[in-house]
From TrEMBL:
Annotated Basic and acidic residues bias: 347-381
Region (Disordered): 341-391
Keyword Secreted carried by entry: yes
Organism the protein comes from: Kurthia zopfii
Pfam families, per the entry: Glucosaminidase, GW
Name of the molecule in the record: Beta-N-acetylglucosaminidase
GO MF term set: amidase activity
Keyword Signal tagged: yes
InterPro entries: Glycosyl_Hydrolase_73, GW_dom, GW_dom_sf, MGlyc_endo_b_GlcNAc-like_dom
């Protein structure tokens, strides 16, 4: 873990405020300036304006503490007022309604907001809870007075008042709910129970419908008004309606995948679905061809229904009383109203009557033959377009000309945004020697909308692999943007310019398309269809709000650890503390699944020594140079996990916190860990533990719990009566060192450790021990009963050795003919015996090997150990 800091309490112990330990209970207090304050009774409720507001021991006193977050966002009883000529006005605040009980302190008038408070005659009456808002410990309650964060589960519960007060103009009632004394405002209550509305009655129907007004609302769920959105993107098109719902005496039609609309907001006809037929009809030359029966401008295939053109019909449907036919006209598929067709074949032109042959005149002179007039040239018939299916994308060239249609080649103004827009090309048309592209874009309703036609020479086009149908559930990661065409980046193509507010939102994929090696998916964001690149999806746990509590159970958490590490994990400290994560979720409103995954990541599945010996699951104070020794010690797992939950809330998740960067693991990653994959890995563990439940999280509001700041007081020392790891070493009494330069002993063996004692050069000190992670640089000393550390570079150790391997201690300084008194394990420290001059006692054997006389660890016995298997500390 990076960037860990010790959480420091806001108030010193001497100024810690509570209802039981008031700052003062004066009757008439004199300030240091000799101003006399006169007290009088009042009846108000008040709150402190800011965290910088001061709480004084007495009116006019110089002794005070800052309110901090511990006393803001809370309502207090105000029953005394203190005034003085030339002085400020003060009010006394209390958490108790009895003026005879101790109060908290005095607040300057300018630092408070106050409301009148009046106890009125209580008329006992049973009311019912609406199910909205929260329940409070005091009337007029604020965030820190919340007792019941949500009243949703108490909807329609009887609430019989036992006390009534008026706060300002609002009446508040007190009653008991589930054994708890709760205050509610009159606005949270009703005189009658809410009659439960029956579920929608859904029946199959066949209708075609259009939206009359884009300001009308469409509902994803008609029982939830909050799911309503405007329908401006769905106007101008025809919808097939297959289901009708009756809910709360209102009739709704389902418009395909878009949602439900009130029938009263639609124009509609009965609809008889298409059936197969086969006939040849002829066009009258009026009307348009559409993609759907009773089509609108958004559904137009062509506006050029040439008179007498052949219409080969393959299907027919009935809208109201009008029959609509589906078939082909000159290679184009379309629906055409029967009112625009006829069964009569066009009449063929009559042949011109040949003139009578002239009667030959009598000879002798044969008249000249008249010159036959030239036959009139038939006018050139316009060439019909030859269409071809395409799969391309294109932008317009600066010199391009855009046409509304090919029949008239009427020019169309190119909008400014269209000059940079990327278009889809689904077909081309060849007319004579010229080929045109049909430019289109997708509407937010997911339909193709034709923009116009352009010569191929006027467009910069590229071939793309066509989109294909796909089915998947993805989750947006809150990054990037969405467009109306796959692969587009232009501002004019963006339908959602910033997806940050959709982090962890469900995205149901309907199509996918690969362009330039990148994959794009089509789906709905809210009620709008859009394309999103694959890189903008991810594990929803990486991007969701950590203040949305998990629905994971203790059994699921335990099963996950057993699945990953086997049944042996049951003896692990992390496994044993699983219930604490759920307890802290209730207390702090932080997702328990996240907290356990974080602990797994930090401890290596509970394998770290500091988690086992110090109940420190998150590496607090575990600096790199002294991880085990410096790490904070917590008496219980509950202490360690609460310390973590409190720090995460106050430093990272709370709005305005010092390291706040949003409430998701991804946001927290920025200021919490230098490892950029931290959030990814935490989210991976969460998903393995229990899959993301979008139905649960999408409808869950983030927690608003703002817990009271605990008074933490922890250090790094494992108590003597608690187990210690084998890496901790305690020296036998009498191991000493001489201070070689003025030195200090510190609370921690760390460069920034706080000084505990100072030693002058030449002082002889007793060494108490050391630990493996710091033994190369630090030695432990005792300052009174407090553990402290001194650097080895500032001392000269007089009589300390350590076995470099398993070593025998013998009764004489030789291997030959001696008895083994003890065997020391590798890394075992021991005390060297010293002579009268303070030097280690040594002897040489017959092979000239030096032997040291030592005290056998843990005893008063002495023996000899060979210099070949020990390290002597200096």
């Amino acid at each position: 873990m990076n960037q860990k800091k010790v959480l420091v309490g806001l108030l010193s112990a001497s100024l810690l405020l509570s209802a039981a330990t008031p700052l003062t209970t004066p009757t008439e207090a004199k300030a240091a300036t000799k101003v006399v304050y006169k007290q009088s009774a009042t009846s108000q409720l008040g709150q402190l304006k800011t965290v910088n507001s001061r709480i004084y021991t007495a009116p006019g006193s110089s002794k005070s503490v800052a309110a901090s977050t511990k006393y803001t966002n809370e309502i207090f009883y105000v029953m005394k007022k203190a005034t003085a000529t030339g002085g400020e006005t003060y009010y006394q605040i209390s958490r108790l309604s009895d003026p005879k009980k101790p109060a908290l302190g005095w607040i300057k008038s300018k630092s408070m907001k106050r409301s009148s408070y009046k106890v009125v005659t209580n008329v006992k009456k049973t009311r019912y809870i609406k199910g909205v808002g929260a329940g409070y410990t005091r009337p007029g309650g604020l965030q820190r007075n919340i007792l019941l964060p949500s009243l949703a589960s108490y909807k329609n519960t009887a609430f019989t008042n036992t006390m009534t007060v008026k706060v300002g103009t609002v009446t508040w009632y007190r009653a008991t709910i589930s054994g708890k004394t709760v205050w509610l405002p009159s606005t949270a209550l009703m005189t009658k129970k809410i009659t439960q509305v029956a579920a929608p009655v859904i029946t199959p129907i066949n209708r075609v419908a259009r939206i009359d007004d884009g300001a009308s609302l469409i509902y994803e769920d008609i029982t939830k008004p909050a799911t309503a959105e405007e329908t401006s993107d769905l106007t101008g098109m025809t919808h097939i309606v297959k289901r009708q719902a009756t809910y709360n005496k209102e009739v709704y039609f389902e418009l395909g995948d878009y949602g439900w609309m009130k029938a009263a907001d639609l124009s509609y006809y009965s609809y008889k679905p298409a059936t197969a037929t086969s006939k040849t009809l002829y066009l009258t030359g009026a009307g348009y061809g559409y993609t759907t029966p009773w089509g609108t401008k958004e559904d137009i295939v062509t506006k050029n229904l040439v008179k007498d053109a052949i219409f080969e019909v393959s299907k027919q449907a009935t809208v109201g009383k009008t029959i609509w036919y589906y078939g082909q006209v000159k290679g184009l598929d379309m629906w055409i109203s029967s009112t625009r067709t006829t069964t009569t074949k066009p009449t063929e032109l009559e042949k011109p009557v040949e003139p009578e042959k002239p009667v030959e005149p009598e000879k002798p002179v044969e008249p000249e033959k008249p010159v036959e007039p030239e036959k009139p040239v038939d006018p050139e018939k316009p060439q019909a377009p030859v269409y071809k299916t395409e799969s391309r994308q294109a932008t317009l060239k600066s010199t391009a000309t855009l046409y509304k249609d090919l029949a008239t080649l009427t020019k169309k103004t190119i909008q400014t945004s269209e000059k940079t827009e990327l278009f889809s090309i689904n077909r081309s048309a060849k007319m004579g020697a010229t080929t045109y592209y049909e430019l289109s874009r997708m509407t937010t309703a997911g339909k193709n909308s034709v923009v116009g036609w352009v010569k191929t020479t006027d467009a910069s086009a590229k071939s793309v692999v066509a989109a294909k149908s796909a089915t998947a559930t993805n989750f947006l990661n809150g990054k990037g943007f969405a467009t109306n065409i796959a692969g587009a980046t232009a501002a004019s193509n963006k339908t959602v310019t910033n997806l940050s507010k959709y982090a962890a939102s469900t995205f149901k994929v309907t199509k996918e398309q690969v362009i330039g090696g990148k994959t794009y998916y089509l789906g709905k964001i809210g009620s709008k269809y859009a394309w999103v690149e694959a890189q903008y999806f991810g594990n929803p746990f990486q991007y969701f709000n950590l203040r949305k509590v998990s629905n994971v159970t203790q059994a699921e958490m335990e099963a996950y650890l057993i699945k990953k590490k086997g049944t042996g994990i049951k003896t692990n400290n992390l496994y044993k503390n699983i219930p604490v994560f759920l307890e802290m979720q209730k207390k702090y409103g932080i997702n328990a699944q996240f907290m356990l995954a974080h602990a797994i990541w930090e401890t290596g599945w509970g394998g770290s020594q500091i988690s086992q010996y110090k109940n420190n699951f998150f590496g607090y104070q575990a600096y790199d140079s002294c991880a085990m020794t410096c790490a904070m010690y917590f008496p219980t797992g509950t202490d360690g996990i609460q310390y973590y939950a409190d720090a995460i809330y106050r430093k990272y998740l709370r709005v305005g916190a010092i390291y706040n960067n949003g409430t998701s693991p991804e946001g927290m990653n920025v200021k919490y860990a230098t490892d950029k994959t931290w959030a990814f890995n935490i989210a991976r563990l969460m998903a393995e533990m229990k899959a993301y439940d979008s139905a649960y999280y999408d409808n869950l509001a983030p927690s608003t719990i703002d817990p009271v700041l605990p008074n933490f007081n922890y250090d790094n020392v494992i108590p003597d009566n608690k187990p210690k790891p084998a890496t901790y070493h305690t020296f036998d009494p009498g191991v000493v060192a001489k201070v070689t330069t003025d030195a200090k002993a510190q609370i921690l063996p760390y460069v920034w450790g706080k000084q505990q004692a100072a030693y002058a050069k030449g002082t002889t000190i007793t060494l108490a021990g050391t630990n493996n992670d710091v033994s190369g640089l630090w030695m432990k000393v005792m300052v009174g009963k407090t553990e402290a550390w001194i650097t080895r570079s500032s001392i000269e150790i007089q009589n300390l050795g350590q076995a470099t391997m398993e070593a025998n201690v013998r009764n004489n300084p030789t291997v030959t003919g001696t008895a083994v008194l003890a065997t020391l394990p590798a890394k075992q420290f021991f005390k060297l015996e010293r002579d009268v001059k303070g030097k280690p006692v040594i002897q040489k054997d017959s092979k000239n090997t030096i032997w040291y006389k030592i005290t056998i660890p843990g005893s008063t016995k002495t023996g000899w150990i060979s210099s070949t298997i020990v390290q002597i500390y200096k």
